[in-house]
Design brief:
Blueprint: H1 9-20, H2 23-35, H3 39-67, H4 71-78, H5 86-117, H6 129-138, H7 141-159, H8 162-189, H9 194-202, H10 212-225, H11 232-238, H12 246-274, H13 285-296, H14 300-333, H15 338-358, H16 374-401, H17 404-411, H18 419-444
Helix pairs in contact: 1-8, 1-11, 1-12, 1-14, 2-10, 2-12, 3-4, 3-9, 3-10, 3-11, 3-12, 3-16, 3-18, 4-5, 5-7, 5-14, 5-15, 5-16, 7-14, 7-15, 8-12, 8-14, 9-12, 10-16, 10-18, 11-14, 12-13, 13-14, 14-15, 15-16, 16-18
Bound molecules: phenylalanine.
Residues 19-20, 22-25, 98, 224-225, 227, 230, 232, 318, 321-322 line the site of phenylalanine (PHE).
């Protein structure tokens, strides 16, 4: 079967940005920053994006473009008979784990969208938004319904072909989300007590860095948010033809992704302090804070509708990129049709998501890792272990399997002033940093 190709460089950029920008920037970023003490974590996160994330993003996309294959096939094609391709399987497993729970959280967002549409959430309920959120996610059927619906949308877009679906969604809703976030940031900053939130986010309290788990969380967040290490960016890169220039594109994706994260921090934390909610309240944070903001602001109901709609669509452009990883693999290896591959893999992910969703309520006593529930455990294994491992393999592959010339050629860096610094990062610094942080991870689990 003919492989898809992006219509233009813009098509690739939109798809890759759509993949990067999603629940990770808003939902995951804010609660992880809150749990890890604010400013110092933010700096660590930004450093991870700059030193590890962006150089790796360039590496990952380049491998895909050069090989023109999926995450397993790319390694096999460029290094036949060598064990590199095993790293690809980590990516495939990670895509199942991540989309399993990602779709549940995206379902929460859809549920909120629906409840703003019907006006249900306009006024602060007497028990408060926290209570409403908790009773929703701990119930059995409602969250599963929205999770299922979200997965159906994702499958549908992937089976019609990624290109048409996302190019449209991203051109419209990414800018919408950006505008809404900027508007909300302005409003949030005007709340009484907002400055305390600004200080929490930007004034580092270095003492939090004594805890090794903070480094792991920063690295994991960088990988998750940039869609790195799964093979998503490799697969999207494989739909690029040779004549595009990659370094600028990857830096652009990194900047855009970071912009969304920081703005959502400026939306969330001033409000967290203004409404006196604990910054470390966990995964419910944005679902409690945002409705509080909407309830106070003029036209809040309308903003609520638009916001949760945009968030859901941003989640879809990420979820399709996750589903595309195993789908591309199965189409090639098993010769399945795109339709069959999308439905089968999507259904397995749906089943994994059922466990994650029930783990919020009835199955909350099941804690596979430490005191993490099912969803947090899936997230931990994927974001903090599988993705950095995938990233490590990609860095070593470009840094040590390729010759220097091949590495520059694959990344379009041959004539760039930055080529030596990038090479130094990818060959030595990135692998060493990932390994050091890994050793910490082994200690805490
Ligand atoms: N980067 C996406 C987000 O921030 C999630 C994602 C992770 C997508 C890994 C693809 C691969 O929401």
């Amino acid at each position: 079967m003919e492989r898809e190709n992006w219509a233009s460089k813009l098509g690739f950029m939109l798809a890759a940005m759509g993949s990067a920008v999603g629940l990770g920037n808003i939902w995951r970023f804010s609660y992880v920053v809150g749990e890890n003490g604010g400013g110092a974590f933010l700096i660590l996160y930004l450093a991870s994006v700059l030193v590890i994330g962006v150089p790796l993003l360039l590496a990952e996309v380049s491998i895909g473009r050069k090989a023109q294959s999926d995450v397993v096939g790319s390694f096999q094609k460029l290094a036949p008979g060598k064990p590199w391709f095993l790293a690809g399987f980590f990516g495939v497993v990670a895509s199942f784990l991540i989309l399993g729970f990602y779709s549940v959280v995206a379902g929460w967002s859809m549920y909120y969208f629906w409840n703003y549409l019907t006006g249900e959430l306009f006024a602060v309920p007497s028990e408060g938004y926290g209570f409403i959120f908790d009773s929703f996610i701990t119930s059995v059927y409602q969250p599963l319904f929205w999770h299922g619906l979200f997965m159906i949308f994702t499958i549908f877009i992937v089976l019609t072909g990624v290109k048409k679906g996302i190019e449209f969604a991203n051109k419209l809703f990414m800018p919408a989300l950006a505008i809404l976030l900027l508007l909300l940031a302005g409003y949030s900053l005007s709340l009484d007590g907002a400055m305390e939130g600004v200080r929490f986010l930007f004034q580092p309290d270095w003492s939090v860095l004594d805890d090794p788990s903070v480094y792991i969380a920063a690295l994991g967040q960088a990988f998750f948010s940039l869609s790195l290490g799964v093979g998503t960016m490799m697969t999207y890169g494989s739909y690029l033809s040779k004549q595009h220039r990659l370094p600028g594109a990857t830096v652009g994706i990194g900047i855009m992704d970071t912009f969304f994260a920081i703005i959502s921090g400026i939306v969330i934390f001033p409000a967290v302090f203004a409404f006196q909610i604990q910054p470390d309240s966990g995964p419910g944070l944005v679902f409690i804070i945002l409705p509080d903001i909407f309830a106070q602001m003029p036209f809040g109901g309308l903003v609520g509708i638009l916001f949760f709609l945009s968030l859901t669509l941003a989640a879809i452009s990420s979820s399709i990129s996750l589903l595309e990883v195993p789908v591309a693999y199965f189409i090639r290896v098993k010769k399945w049709s795109r339709k069959f591959a999308s439905i089968v893999t999507g259904s397995i992910m749906f089943a994994l998501g059922i466990a994650a969703s029930l783990g919020m309520g009835g199955l909350s006593h099941i804690t596979p890792i430490g005191d993490y529930n099912i969803m947090d455990s899936m997230d931990f294994v994927a974001s903090n272990i599988l993705l950095p491992f995938g990233g490590l393999a990609m860095a070593l592959f470009i840094g040590w399997h390729f010759t220097k010339q091949q590495a520059f050629e694959a990344t379009d860096l041959t004539n760039s002033a930055f080529r030596n610094i990038w090479y130094l990062l990818i060959r030595y610094i990135v692998p060493v940093l990932i390994i050091i942080i890994f050793l910490n991870t082994l200690e805490i689990i």
